[in-house]
Design brief:
Layout: E1 4-8, H1 16-24, E2 27-33, H2 42-50, E3 57-60, E4 66-68, E5 75-78, E6 83-87, E7 97-98, E8 100-101, H3 105-108, E9 114-117, E10 121-128, E11 132-139, E12 141-144, E13 148-152, H4 163-174, E14 179-182, H5 188-198, E15 203-208, H6 211-215, H7 217-223, E16 226-230, H8 231-237, H9 243-256, E17 260-264, H10 279-291, E18 295-298, H11 300-303, H12 308-324, E19 361-363, E20 374-376, E21 381-384, H13 387-397, E22 406-407, H14 410-419, E23 434-436, E24 449-453, E25 459-470, H15 473-481, H16 489-496, E26 500-508, H17 523-532, E27 538-543, H18 549-561, E28 566-572, H19 583-595, E29 604-609, H20 618-631, E30 635-638, H21 651-661, E31 667-670, E32 673-677, E33 682-686, H22 696-704, H23 716-727
Parallel strand pairs: 1-2, 1-18, 2-3, 3-14, 6-7, 14-15, 15-16, 16-17, 17-18, 21-24, 27-28, 27-30, 28-29, 30-31
Antiparallel strand pairs: 4-8, 4-13, 5-12, 6-11, 9-10, 9-13, 10-11, 19-20, 22-26, 23-26, 24-25, 25-26, 32-33
């Protein structure tokens, strides 16, 4: 990203999940605010952060600032025209009596001083007594503990750093902290002082947040590595309507002297309590970048806010929009939300659908046919293919198989079989071939444009044939499936469907009619849905069976372990084995579980895609993961039997293949065998221990016989629904 994101860590974000997500979203610095951190906790918190992330930490000093001390209940409300005593000695804080920090400040107050306390309260010193000063409240409101107090109209001499700051900087230096921020920088000497304490290699950011800092801006900037505008504290001494102009002036000066400049406070303040910002806040963030700010600093939004990840995600989205609009063009307008999802495999989603779907004539796009003329589909030579081939055409056309644009050439197939990669080096494990008998290809040659039909001669796709080639059955079967045994269904299909492969790009003309079309979601649709829900980390689950309790365990555990925003459950809508459940009862079972709050609210999206089993073990599992990456998923659940068939493969092979391929852009979430312990009534994983479990096939067989299963394997509400469907003779099984 061209702009940096600094995130303040606090109660809402000092945990593994949020730190990991903020790092993933591009946080370049984690800020620890010493004003809200006890000294005895500094080393512990630094170690906690440093052991969980490579993002550097910045110690932000208390500096020369006045704050309220502890209050009963954390906050009090003071009435207008009431009095408050500010004590020199420590007292329990309430609406009538309180202390200021540092302790010596109260003794420097004189009659007539005006104090702004927290955001609302304005009070004047009306008496100075032996043990306290008396404030007259001119404007009432709420006062929180450890909140800023500003002395208006005159300055009070304060050291650049507190004793706590000095001790914390010493701890930070010892623990390798290189970034420090000087709060309330008043003069150049303050910068020299913090640099001497933090070390010569320290990167010092001076915060401009008071009038003295503004007056000495040139010399402060000259001694600093970077500047930060804290608009909140600055607006306590400068009228708020002047802040926008001051922000532009400070940024302009920083740029003139070659210093980085950051902006903090109230960037997305509403997101402290709301999952969405206001339009004004988004506009402010965008315009702050337009002013020239190098980075944006989230404070309360990530430290104490209810939606720290969402706040950082929103800043990232606005940064992307800012970057996109450098060199603005009208074509940049789009209704699609800015996405922080993983990129599709290869960098973009393939789209090979004719703009005139269901039209009797096929437009001839230049990338496929080479001219702008239209050509009647009926004039093309035809090749009758299987339904699974037409399903592959749909998946290629809508981007599920990105970056593929058609069926593979001999060289591409060899590269995939031998190296698990396409010719351009991108990881790809699944041979994508169009197989045909030699007799069906007598009138077709390389260079031809053909139409692909079903058994009824209905045309569904057009193809620009680039190559027709023979293949060595034994070699392809062994490399693809790991066996040449004809009892293997994948090998059997390869043996039966012809001796030739036809290569070339395709264009989808019409989608196959499907009784399950209502469940289908294309990658472009899932990405819009995930972005609209504010998700960037999504766990994908390949659902070919009923949602039994072991699946539930894996799904919810993966959602938790990945610190994900949501779970995408995609139904397998292509043909399965006889006896398997049809998509509708599977979908209805998941809907029933959602309605009964089995899954966390707002965390699950159900959909479907035209997958069908290929029975090639590890290759198929990696292939599925890449397809879910195209759908926008960052993680993919892999149970111990994923992609396996009758003992031909084991998960160790799958893990090894993933390891050998390196980072493919989607993270596998592996599960060993999942079992149930009736004594503890808990589910668990085990590599070797005998587990109490039940296979999907056994569950299907039991339900087909009208047998009731224990609730630990399949929830009663699902069984009752399925039994009704079966008793009423509705289609349930393939």
């Amino acid at each position: 990203m061209s702009k940096e994101i600094w995130c303040t860590l606090g109660p809402s974000s000092l945990n593994d999940r949020v730190i990991g997500r903020l790092e993933e979203l591009g946080a370049s610095l984690f800020r620890l605010n010493l004003s809200h951190t006890k000294l005895e906790k500094v080393a512990e918190i630094l170690e906690y952060i440093q052991t969980r992330t490579k993002v550097p930490v910045c110690l932000d000093t208390e500096g020369a600032q006045v704050r309220t001390s502890d209050l009963a209940g954390g906050k009090v409300v003071v009435r207008e025209n009431s009095t408050i005593r500010v004590h020199y000695k420590r007292v329990p804080g309430d609406a009538n009596d309180l202390n200021l920090h540092p302790d010596y400040i109260a003794k420097q107050l004189i009659v007539g001083d005006l104090l702004k306390i927290d955001a609302e309260v304005l009070a004047q010193v009306v008496a100075v007594e032996s043990d306290w000063v008396v404030l007259w409240v001119l404007n009432g409101g709420e006062i929180g503990q450890n909140k800023a107090v500003t002395l208006l109209e005159r300055d009070v001499e304060m050291p650049a750093m507190t004793e706590k700051d000095k001790q914390a900087l010493a701890i930070g230096k010892k623990m390798g902290v290189r970034f420090v921020a000087l709060s309330f920088a008043n003069r150049a000497a303050d910068v020299d002082e913090i640099r001497a304490l933090a070390g010569v290699e320290a990167m010092v950011t001076s915060k401009i947040e008071c009038l003295s800092g503004l007056r000495h801006l040139p010399e402060i900037a000259a001694r600093s590595d970077a500047l930060l505008i804290d608009r909140g504290d600055l607006s306590r001494q400068v009228n708020i309507e002047r802040i926008p102009a001051l922000q532009k002036d400070i940024i302009r000066h920083a740029k003139l002297v070659g210093r980085k400049i950051y902006v903090a406070t109230n960037l997305l303040e509403s997101m402290v309590t709301s999952p969405n910002p206001t339009r004004a806040e988004v506009n402010d963030v965008f315009n702050t970048m337009m002013d020239g700010a190098d980075g944006l600093v989230l404070a309360a939004e990530t430290a104490i806010g209810a939606f720290p990840v969402a706040a950082a995600m929103m800043v990232k989205k606005v940064i992307r929009e800012y970057e996109k609009n450098q060199g603005w063009q009208p074509t940049h307008y789009s209704s699609a939300p800015i996405s922080t999802l993983v990129e599709p495999h290869g960098g973009f989603l393939v789209s090979r659908e004719s703009r005139e779907m269901n039209s009797p004539a096929l437009p001839r796009p230049s990338f496929l046919f080479g001219t702008k003329e239209s050509r009647s589909l009926q004039n093309l030579r035809t090749l009758q293919v299987q339904d699974t081939d037409l399903m592959d055409c749909v998946q290629i056309a809508n981007g599920v198989y990105s970056p593929l644009t058609g069926f593979m050439s001999a060289k591409e197939l060899a590269s995939v079989l031998d190296h698990h990669r396409l010719l351009n080096g991108q990881v790809w494990t699944m041979p994508m071939v169009l197989q045909a008998h030699e007799s069906a290809l007598t009138n077709i040659a390389a260079g031809d444009r053909i139409a692909l039909t079903d058994a009824n001669d209905k045309i569904y796709a057009a193809m620009n044939v680039s190559e027709i080639y023979a293949f060595d059955f034994e070699e392809v079967a062994r490399k693809w499936f790991g066996t040449t045994a004809r009892k293997h269904p994948g090998v059997a299909k390869l043996a039966e469907n012809g001796s030739r492969f036809v290569a070339g790009e395709i264009m989808l003309v019409e989608k196959m009619a499907s009784p399950y079309a209502q469940y289908e979601l294309s990658p472009s649709q899932t990405r819009v849905i995930f972005a609209q829900k504010g998700w960037s980390r999504v766990v994908g689950f390949h659902a070919g069976h009923l949602p039994n309790r072991l699946h539930e365990y894996a799904q919810l555990r993966a959602l938790e372990a990945a610190h994900a925003d949501g779970l995408y459950i995609s139904l397998v809508m292509g043909p399965q084995q006889a006896g398997d459940f049809l998509p509708p009862p599977i979908f209805n079972s998941y809907q029933l579980l959602l309605h009964n709050d089995v899954y966390p609210s707002g965390k699950v999206v159900l959909g479907g895609s035209l997958f069908y089993p290929r029975y090639c073990g590890p290759r198929e599992t990696v292939f599925h993961a890449l397809c879910y990456k195209n759908m926008g998923c960052s993680h993919f659940v892999i149970e111990c039997d994923h992609g396996h068939f009758d003992g031909f493969y084991d998960q160790a092979q799958t893990r090894e293949l993933f390891k050998s391929l390196g980072d493919i852009g989607i993270t596998p979430v592996f599960f060993d065998a999942i079992g149930y312990n009736p004594e503890t009534q808990k589910y668990f994983e085990s590599k070797s221990a005998k587990t109490m479990a039940m296979s999907d096939k056994a569950i299907q067989a039991a339900l087909a016989k009208n047998e009731t299963l224990p609730n630990w394997i399949l929830r009663d509400i699902v069984q009752e629904m399925l039994m009704r469907e079966i008793s009423e003779n509705r289609p349930v099984f393939y």
